[in-house]
Design goal:
single chain; seven-stranded mixed beta sheet; 7 helices; 11 strands; Nucleotidyltransferase family protein; NTP_transferase_dom; Mannose-1P_guanyltransferase; Nucleotide-diphossugar_trans
Amino acid sequence: MTHPSAASRPVQAVVLAGGQGSRLRPYTDDRPKPMVEIPGTGTPIIGHQLVWLAEEGVTDVVVSCGHLAEVLQDWLNSADLPVKVTTVVETEPLGRGGGLKYAAAHLPHPDRPWYATNGDIWTRFSLRDMADFHTERDAVATLALARPRIPWGAVKTDGFGHITDFIEAPPSTFEINAGVYVFSSEFADLLPERGDHERTTFPHLARERRLAGFTIPQGAYWRAIDTAKDLTEAAKELAALGR
């Protein structure tokens, strides 16, 4: 394993903010998904992401825009941001992998590692710890892994089929891709010009044991804002956390 140092931690990041956000309508009728505000916070999702990235040592962010790009660009131009932001817009759909490659080409330090996050993720955990984990495993790419709560109540049974307990919204037994990444500098060259890296680049790296999974620490906040219900739930959770 490679011993990590502060110098190996990324200072640059890509935020993928080009999705249609169709499941969040009507909130996304006049704005892209990362511009949706969580009730009670007064700040769009991407605003919170940029603050988090800055707190974790990031100085430069490339925001990949798509749907209603001008709304996002106008907000970024007018807001008091804690990082330097560059926006890029795909002139034609490149797919998730192609879009990531296109955005990465605009990072200021192509020879250094970088973070990436989906534009609809609301989370708080130590990216520095994740970067150290990535370095220790000599990975080319590291995915943050979350264990989301199942949106239904679960039922426990015994060996005879008797119901013994009901559990409201338990954590999943499986970990999922949490939409936050650490990438080594060479990762961009492995991305497709068009298409989905999760079907090409990631499986290739997994076979070579160069793809790592960093489990978000227990108790750290994570939620993907995908539907109107997610907005409501996030508002409740953040109020309970006092944020």
